[in-house]
Amino acid sequence: MSTPDTRLPLATQHAHWSIDQIAFDRIAHERIVSEETWLYVLAAASFVESLSDLYARNLLEYMANDPEASRWLRERWEPEELQHGRALRHYVETVWPAFDWPAAFDGFCADYRPHCKPELLEPTRALEMVARCVIETGTSGLYGLLHRISPEPVLTTLVGHIRNDEVGHYKYFYHFFLRYREAERPSRWQVARVLRHRLGGVGQEDAYLALKNVVAVRNPDQTFNTQKFQRFQHMAGRWARTDYPYDMTVKMLLKPLRLPGFINHLALPLLVYQARRIVAP
Ligand SMILES: [Fe+2]
Ligand SMILES: [Fe+2]
Question: How far away, in angstroms, is 52 Cα from ligand 2 center?
Answer without folding.
Answer: 9
